[in-house]
């Protein structure tokens, strides 16, 4: 059912200077009125009217303009978004429209767009011949937003993602770390061989379905903010939260031990986060991320370290095999088949992660079917390697080929997907050589859904049974044998479970966490796996 919106007009007294006109056709309506005084900067007021359910079909709009020129019209197909903010978060917006047109203007012009699940942007310059009073009119049966501005910064007024997630907290990544030697003089070392991860022979799919356990987090994070259908059951649930009594007990143990060794030198300023992995037979493993105050100097220090508490013990110890290395090179591996636009989205998103995390030890390796490899290498520039492949798309072979190009056994292999929105903490280390692999759990967005905003929570589910996003040391990759290229060739699915079984059989534990702000975009499979 379509609803026709009443046409509106905006009148403005324009100075004779270049102005910028941008019209978005979206799945929510937001109209704006501007009154611009002659020869001064415009001051805008905004009124937004939002509708929850729209289908975009035919769009007809008319804008009266006092000059002859041209405008740019950009089209995005299959965007299936329902608000301004969700279009802005669409991965291919605004850089990669499906179609670009240059339209010549007359004093009055009209354009029609046909088709569902599409978005359109019209942009251009308005250069009045003289100061005066002009009218602009827009008529549409579909939602739209109009911007008129004297510069190219209208997006400053758009609603953004609140990003109410763990990664949005005030992480003190620039703080000096409390020396590990200082901690080792306080806490004794202890063995770490969890009872649930004894080396064994998992049968087919048994390890993937029964051999991994979820980690609890503190404080409660944004992994619970979603719109998930009830029939999905546990796939709707975010990370379990560490009990407050446990948090208080662990922090008290930590600070008492520090006080005993250093006599009022340190005090606790902030708990950034705590992760708990319970071993019902032996005790619990904790990852503590804290900010301490060095009282004599008033400087701040960051603690990021694994600890273990045995059952019926009142002290913490440092697991001997769980030493974090902050300078390890991470080799990100992706496989692609004729999806150049998604590659560019991925690189842009990853670049933002690297800027936010300030992690420069990152390489990208792309196993590439069907794209112009020379063109990709030019666009991706340094620190990124493109491995050209021919023939029918063979995912496991492509991954294995890419990983085989990594020579440094003490570096990390991180398998990722193209169609992701990644949080800034995606590269935080949960991978430890010879001990831990890491498979963060992505929130798989439903068709037409986008990352969560103030207007629309994320709609979809956590893909808790998937292991396609996977981080492990290269030496451990070689030890378990890598991808099964023989049994998984040209079809989709199952190769990640097979890999997880063999990783667990090798004695490596797989760490599993729901990451707030980590999304997989819905997309068609056209052009993938040799599908038309």
Automatic annotation (TrEMBL):
- Keywords, sorted A to Z: Golgi apparatus, Membrane, Signal-anchor, Transferase, Transmembrane, Transmembrane helix
- Write down a Pfam family by its short name: CHGN
Q: What subcellular compartments does it reside in?
A: Golgi apparatus, Golgi stack membrane
GO CC list: Golgi cisterna membrane
* UniProt keyword Transferase present: yes
In short, the EC number is 2.4.1.-
Q: How does it sit in the membrane?
A: Single-pass type II membrane protein
Give the UniProt family note: Belongs to the chondroitin N-acetylgalactosaminyltransferase family.
**What is the protein name given in its UniProt record?**
Hexosyltransferase
> Per the UniProt entry, what species is this protein from, by scientific name?
Nematostella vectensis (Starlet sea anemone)
């Amino acid at each position: 059912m379509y609803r026709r919106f009443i046409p509106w007009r905006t009148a403005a007294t324009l100075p004779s200077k270049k102005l910028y006109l941008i019209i978005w056709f979206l799945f929510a309506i937001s109209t704006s009125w501007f009154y611009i005084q002659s020869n001064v900067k415009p001051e805008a007021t905004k009124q937004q009217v939002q509708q929850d359910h729209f289908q975009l079909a035919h769009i007809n709009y008319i804008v009266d303009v006092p000059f002859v020129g041209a405008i740019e019209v950009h089209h995005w197909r299959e965007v299936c978004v329902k608000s301004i903010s969700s279009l802005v978060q669409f991965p291919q917006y605004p850089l990669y429209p499906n179609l670009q047109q240059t339209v010549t203007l007359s004093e009055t012009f009209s354009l029609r767009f046909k088709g569902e699940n599409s978005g359109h942007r019209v942009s251009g310059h308005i250069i009045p011949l003289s100061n005066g009073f002009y009218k602009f009119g827009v008529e549409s049966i579909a939602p739209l937003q109009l911007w008129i501005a004297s510069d190219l910064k209208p997006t400053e007024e758009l609603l953004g993602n609140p990003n109410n997630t763990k990664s949005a907290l005030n992480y003190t990544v620039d703080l000096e770390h409390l020396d590990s030697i200082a901690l080792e003089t306080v806490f004794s070392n202890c063995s770490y061989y969890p009872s649930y991860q004894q080396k064994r022979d998992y049968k087919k799919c048994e390890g993937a379905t029964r051999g991994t356990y979820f980690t609890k987090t503190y404080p409660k994070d944004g992994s619970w903010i979603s719109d998930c259908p009830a029939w999905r059951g546990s796939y709707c649930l975010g990370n379990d939260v560490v009990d407050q009594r446990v948090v208080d007990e662990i922090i008290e143990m930590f600070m008492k031990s520090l006080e005993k060794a250093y006599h009022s030198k340190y005090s606790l300023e902030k708990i950034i986060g705590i992760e708990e992995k319970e071993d019902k037979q032996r005790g619990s493993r904790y990852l503590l991320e804290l900010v301490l105050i060095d009282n004599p100097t008033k400087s701040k220090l960051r603690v990021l370290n694994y600890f273990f508490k045995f059952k019926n013990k009142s002290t913490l110890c440092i697991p001997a095999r769980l030493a974090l290395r902050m300078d390890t090179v991470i080799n990100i591996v992706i496989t692609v088949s004729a999806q150049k636009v998604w590659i560019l989205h991925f690189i842009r998103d990853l670049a933002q992660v690297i800027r936010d995390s300030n992690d420069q030890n990152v390489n990208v390796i792309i196993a590439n079917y069907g794209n112009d490899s020379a063109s990709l290498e030019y666009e991706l520039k340094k620190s990124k390697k493109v491995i050209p492949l021919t023939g029918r798309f063979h995912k496991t072979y492509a991954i294995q080929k890419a990983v085989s190009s990594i020579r440094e056994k003490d570096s990390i292999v991180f398998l990722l997907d193209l169609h992701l929105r990644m949080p800034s903490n995606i590269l935080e280390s949960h991978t430890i050589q010879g001990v831990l692999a890491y498979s963060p759990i992505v929130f798989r967005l439903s068709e037409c859904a986008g990352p969560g905003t103030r207007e629309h929570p994320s709609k979809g589910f956590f893909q808790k049974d998937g292991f396609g996003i996977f981080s492990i040391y290269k030496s451990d990759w070689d030890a378990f044998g890598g991808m099964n290229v023989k049994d998984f060739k040209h079809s989709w699915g199952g190769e990640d479970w097979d890999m997880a079984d063999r990783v667990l059989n090798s004695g490596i534990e797989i760490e599993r966490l729901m990451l707030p702000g980590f999304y997989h975009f819905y997309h068609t499979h056209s052009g993938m796996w040799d599908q038309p």
